[in-house]
Amino acid sequence: MTPQGQAPFFESGGILPLMKTIAFLFFGTALAALPLTASADSTLTVSGVHNCCKGCAKGIEEAITKAGATAAIDGTTVTITAKSDDAAQKAAEKLVAAGYFGEGAPAPKVSDSKVKSAKVGGVHLCCGKCVKAVEEAVMSVSGVTSHNAEKGAKTFTVEGDFSTAALAAALQKAGLSGDIN
């Protein structure tokens, strides 16, 4: 029973001071000083991301952590956790800028032009499996006749008579992203 005119203990906000007191008694001042509030983190799931090796996983994680978020990688699915929806979106943009792509990430803008040659930059190419994924994607585009992508390359050239939008779509379908000029 509460004294007249006073709110019950749990309604008055008394639980947090009680928890801090208990934490102080059992664990000392350092733990008692920690805030006892839940964080309101935001998550964004990006699926279908190219991730064929440890180098890819490292690149994915580095891109997201540089944006101040964390990455949980499960095969080709990346769950981004950040302090807000905006921060999670910025981390997804960093993922795309690092040469990866997946459903849930912002698609880079590509003008749709019919070209004979295009220079592609920024695609993640850490190993032979990455190169094979790029090759399969690029050669699936109608009108493409060749490319010179290789392990570790910062840029490569695609030749033929093809659409830049179709090239971007093929790379994205393979879980990759790049700048097409």
Summarize the structure.
The chain is an alpha+beta fold and 181 residues long. Among the domains are: 42-97, Alpha-Beta Plaits; 114-180, 2-Layer Sandwich (Alpha-Beta Plaits), CATH 3.30.70.100. The chain contains six helices and seven strands; from the N terminus they run ααβαββαβαββαβ.
Keywords:
181 residues, alpha+beta, 36% helix, Alpha-Beta Plaits, 3-stranded antiparallel sheet, 4-stranded antiparallel sheet, globular, 6 helices, 7 strands
Walk me through what this model shows.
The protein has 181 residues and is α+β, with helices and mostly antiparallel strands. Among the domains are: 42-97, Alpha-Beta Plaits (2-Layer Sandwich), CATH 3.30.70; 114-180, 2-Layer Sandwich (Alpha-Beta Plaits). Helix content is 36%, strand content 22%. The chain contains six helices and seven strands. It has helices at 15-27, 29-32, 54-66, 85-97, 128-139, 164-173, and strands at 42-47, 70-74, 77-82, 114-121, 144-147, 155-163, 179-180. The protein has a four-stranded antiparallel beta sheet with strand order 5-6-4-7. Helix 3 crosses helix 4. 30% of the residues are buried. Residues 7-12, 21-25 and 29-38 have low confidence and may be disordered.
Report the CATH architecture of the domain at 114-180.
2-Layer Sandwich
Mean pLDDT over the residues: 86
Helix/strand/pairing class, anyone?
alpha+beta
Low-pLDDT regions: 7-12, 21-25, 29-38
Gross morphology: globular
Distance between the termini: 75 Å
CATH topology of the domain at 114-180: Alpha-Beta Plaits
In total, the number of strands is: 7
Oligomer: single chain
Main sheet overview: 4 strands, antiparallel
- Beta-strand level of the residues, as a percent range? 15-25%
Helical segment count: 6
Fraction of residues in H or I helices: 25-40%
Give, in spatial order, the strands making up the sheet with the most strands: 5-6-4-7
Order of helices and strands: HHEHEEHEHEEHE
What gyration radius follows from the Cα positions, in whole Å? Answer: 25 Å
CATH class of the domain at 114-180: Alpha Beta
